[in-house]
Inverse folding.
């Protein structure tokens, strides 16, 4: 499983392909974390956790355990 | 009397909603609590025209109507209850021009409740900077509403907003989304069961975890021919709904909202590269902490000394001016020092909230939360617990209040419970005098033993906080959704008006909230120390005069002996002697016992109480120190304050819950006596056991 958001590297941009809605807080979906939107990893804290993301223009931080439930397809190096 | 309409300000956090509120109401606002809970309720009045007034409520910031915290559920509870006296005639949704898409989500939700809704697009001054252009007439048509383009920073657009509020009757209440499209079968059977209810409202009631007026909820459960779905299915539908809402928003913005990224400047990523850096980020955070301590300890010392002296002379003046008697004594020795004990904390609290509100307004606090989350999580805390734990080194009271933005109730409760372990400034005078008595002056690796001891005590406080958080996390069985989503807002220069209002508001809330309790305790203490049962207390002057008749004492010295004898036989003195058997295994005598009992009101009372007991007229620490050094242990002989009893006392003060005001604020924040009582019992018994072991081991 290399295609989750938890595996994105700093600066990389990806397309969200699917989210496991049971494991993801609704709040995160409402902030734009939905299939079809782009996501960029802006910064990570030590141990890659939490992760500071730019999802569809929204800047937010989530824990790695949450990022594991978001499937992505890498697009490019930012 | 003109007519008054209700206006609700709603919007995402970090959209400058409160700035809009401040611009509309100015100083015409008050902050209270929603009944039964500790969520702040901000309301104010704004004059429109022709005698029409707007009663404005600044609702807690929320990303959507699907509530995930206590603050957020306030919003939906109000919007679903047409009978609430605050139910809005018009909802004003505040959005940030840079995050318009996300901010519009809640706009579409409120519009679907068929409440007249208008839109504020705030921070318009940043449009050119970010290369954004808006076609307002087009957006108004697409979103079927009226839009006010506002910049609170540049003071633009507020009058236009007032005009729009005034014309609220012309706003369309056409919904954005046809709720039944989310799932046709499900919603048509829901409609059959409740033909007279708004579908979206029913949907909200079904999907929320919080209880909205029991009738609604039970009604739905009671109807047998309607089968609701399980949680996972409901959530899938909520996801579908969110996607549909974003489709609507994307469509609506297609023509009226364009961004020319080539013109956009990006200060955020430059600052973030440094401020959230794996090394620099922590170094800068550490530096800011140092600056904060400096302000709280050193800079607030000057006004605090001034307040202290003012109240002391006020008390003296009262004694001299009023005819002597019980009332004057109560005023001069009970009430005025009691008031002083409240007022003296104002500089520290004001400084603390100045820092915290600047850090919050600027957007830096979210970065700290980001940096610290991983570390704090190991102990059952959240990245958001850092702020209260830092504040706790000044005073636990504002620190407990600062836990409010932690979403998870469990993490918030643990933070509240462990915060009083951090070494607050009231412990400092106690530590200083005992360290100077029992710790030798030598050096170790260039560091003084005394300074090292003080540092160890601070570390011990943090260690106790974090360690007990770890234990509480294991034993507290609280089901609380633990998720962590933090918005990382743009960096902004804080608005002076917002910072000033926050500082004034928090300080006022401390003075009138916790202040009442401090005052009551100091009056009780005064009574207990000034009255006593039996002949010894009432005839103190005669007894002492006879006893020292042969020694030719001066009037002052004689008075000191009288005061000391009276205290010994007062209610509080009798209490001290009653608890002596309990505290002598810890190495204390009854006098320290009295000081401990009285410092359950506030720790700093310890030094003052000992000063009175040892008949020292002034609070001068050197004099008390000499007296204390000369005291003899009544049972074991030898100096009362030796290494063993000193360490035992230091440990007792490090762990014991001796602060009525903190207990009062914990009661207020947790809305239950259970938690403050638990804090009092557990912390104090732990302190007793540790102090007992230390003394028995070291003596």
């Amino acid at each position: 499983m290399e295609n989750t958001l938890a595996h994105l590297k700093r600066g990389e941009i990806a397309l969200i392909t699917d989210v496991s809605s049971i494991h993801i807080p609704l709040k995160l979906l409402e902030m734009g974390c939905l299939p079809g939107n782009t996501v960029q990893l802006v910064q990570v804290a030590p141990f890659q956790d939490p992760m500071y993301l730019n999802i569809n223009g929204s800047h937010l931080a989530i824990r790695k355990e949450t990022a594991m439930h978001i499937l992505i397809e890498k697009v490019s190096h930012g | 009397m003109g007519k008054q309409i209700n206006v609700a300000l709603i919007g995402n956090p970090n959209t400058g909603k409160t700035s809009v509120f401040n611009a509309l109401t100015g100083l015409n606002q008050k902050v209270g609590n929603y009944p039964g809970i500790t969520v702040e309720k901000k309301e104010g009045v704004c004059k429109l025209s022709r005698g029409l007034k707007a009663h404005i409520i600044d609702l807690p910031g929320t990303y959507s109507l699907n509530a995930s915290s206590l603050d957020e559920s306030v919003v939906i509870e109000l919007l679903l209850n047409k009978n609430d006296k605050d139910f809005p005639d018009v909802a004003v949704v505040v959005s940030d021009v840079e995050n318009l898409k996300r901010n519009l989500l809640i706009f579409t939700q409120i519009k679907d409740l068929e409440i007249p809704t208008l839109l504020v697009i705030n921070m318009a001054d940043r449009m050119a900077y970010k290369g954004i252009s808006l076609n307002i007439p087009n957006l108004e048509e697409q979103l079927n509403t009226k839009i006010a383009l506002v910049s609170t920073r540049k003071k633009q657009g507020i009058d236009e907003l007032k005009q729009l509020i005034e014309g609220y009757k012309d706003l369309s209440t056409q919904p954005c989304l046809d709720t039944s499209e989310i799932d046709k079968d499900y919603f048509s059977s829901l409609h059959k069961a409740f033909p007279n209810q708004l579908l979206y409202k029913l949907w909200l009631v079904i999907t929320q975890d919080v209880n909205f007026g029991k009738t609604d909820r039970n009604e739905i459960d009671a109807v047998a021919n309607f089968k609701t779905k399980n949680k996972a299915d409901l959530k899938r539908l909520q996801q579908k709904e969110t996607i549909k809402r974003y489709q609507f928003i994307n469509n609506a913005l297609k023509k009226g909202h364009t961004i020319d990224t080539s013109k956009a400047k990006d200060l955020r990523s430059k600052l973030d590269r440094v401020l959230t850096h794996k090394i620099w980020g922590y170094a800068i955070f550490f530096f800011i902490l140092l600056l904060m301590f400096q302000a709280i300890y050193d800079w607030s010392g000057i006004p605090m000394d001034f307040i202290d002296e003012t109240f002391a002379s006020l008390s003296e003046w009262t004694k001299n001016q009023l005819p002597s008697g019980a009332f004057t004594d109560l005023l001069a020795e009970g009430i005025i020092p009691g008031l002083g004990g409240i007022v003296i904390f104002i500089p520290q609290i004001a400084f603390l909230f100045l820092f915290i509100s600047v850090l919050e307004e600027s957007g830096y606090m979210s970065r700290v939360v980001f940096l610290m989350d991983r570390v704090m999580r190991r102990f059952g805390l959240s990245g958001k617990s850092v702020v209260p734990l830092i504040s706790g080194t000044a005073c636990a009271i504002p620190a407990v209040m600062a836990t409010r933005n932690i979403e998870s109730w469990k993490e918030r409760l643990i933070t509240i419970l462990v915060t009083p372990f951090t070494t607050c400034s009231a412990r400092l005078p106690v530590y200083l005098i005992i360290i100077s008595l029992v710790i030798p002056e030598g050096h170790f690796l260039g560091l003084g033993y005394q300074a090292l001891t003080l540092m160890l005590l601070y570390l011990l406080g943090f260690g106790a906080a974090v360690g007990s958080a770890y234990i509480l996390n294991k034993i507290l069985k609280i089901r609380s959704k633990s998720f962590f989503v933090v918005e990382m807002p743009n960096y902004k220069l804080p608005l002076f008006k917002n910072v000033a209002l926050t500082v004034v508001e928090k300080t006022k809330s401390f003075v009138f909230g916790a202040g009442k309790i401090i005052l009551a305790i100091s009056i009780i203490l005064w009574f207990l120390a000034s009255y006593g049962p039996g002949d010894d207390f009432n005839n103190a002057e005669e007894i002492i005069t006879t006893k020292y008749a042969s020694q030719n004492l001066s009037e002052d010295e004689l008075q000191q002996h009288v005061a000391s004898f009276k205290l010994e036989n007062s209610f509080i003195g009798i209490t001290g002697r009653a608890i002596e058997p309990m505290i002598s295994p810890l190495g204390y005598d009854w006098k320290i016992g009295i000081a401990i009992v009285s410092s359950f009101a506030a720790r700093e009372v310890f030094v003052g109480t000992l000063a009175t007991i040892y008949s020292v007229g002034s609070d001068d620490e050197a004099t008390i120190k000499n007296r204390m050094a000369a005291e003899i242990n009544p049972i074991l002989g030898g100096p009362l304050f030796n290494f063993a009893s000193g360490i035992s006392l230091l440990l007792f003060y490090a762990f014991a819950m001796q602060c009525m005001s903190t207990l009062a604020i914990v009661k207020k924040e947790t809305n239950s006596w259970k938690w403050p009582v638990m804090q009092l019992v557990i912390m104090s018994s732990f302190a007793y056991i540790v102090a007992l072991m230390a003394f028995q081991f070291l003596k």
